[in-house]
Amino acid sequence: MSGCEARDAKKLVRSPSGLRMVPELRSARSPFGLDEPPWVPDKECPRCMQCDTKFDFITRKHHCRRCGKCFCDKCCSKKVPLPRMCFVDPVRQCAECALISQKEAEFYDKQLKVLMNGATFFVTPGTSDKSELMVCRLSNNQRYLVLDGDSHYEIEIIQISTVQILTEGFTPGGGNTRAIGMILQYKVPGAEELKQMKFTASEDFSCNKKLSASWLAAMHKVSKGGKTYRRL
């Protein structure tokens, strides 16, 4: 077990919004997570905040678990998974929030799983001309990029500043390209200058090339969605 995963214990907690499986230590929380929002107090919400229907004994009010606002059942009827808040089951969300959560589902169901499964690359640190074959993966708590070979690195996700995907096959007139590597720049706490690492896909086996390309595509998705998915 790597150092960054030594405190991955989780606990089941109940909030007004539902059951959540959260890390025991706040410092072990995923950088892709969201805090539960405060609910708009019932007394401040006499009408649906979407359609303006007045609440009464028949028309009950419901709180969206993602934004915390008050809605009638018609405007807040969807129950959608919300992994960014660690909910165990799908939770009630307004139409706008449900759409956002559904779009994020692919990120959680596909990209994060690909990154956590890992892939093999030749890794070149800084300006060195020596590369090392390493298995690269996202840690179970999603906080670190873990690199294992003869050497070992743990790069905190929130410290990554830029991700440049390297491709081949591009022609001036257009054409198919495939990801063959990436250049990663990140900050080490306490240091002013950025550090850099270059990742090059292994050409040993065709299956490795395909796995590496999928991993790089997932990493590109994370970098493109940085403002959405990461708490920077």
Automatic annotation (TrEMBL):
SUPFAM superfamilies: FYVE/PHD zinc finger. It holds the Pfam family ZFYVE21_C. Keywords: Metal-binding, Zinc, Zinc-finger. One of its GO terms (molecular function) is zinc ion binding. Coiled coil: none annotated. SMART domains: FYVE. This is ZFY21 protein. The gene is Zfyve21.
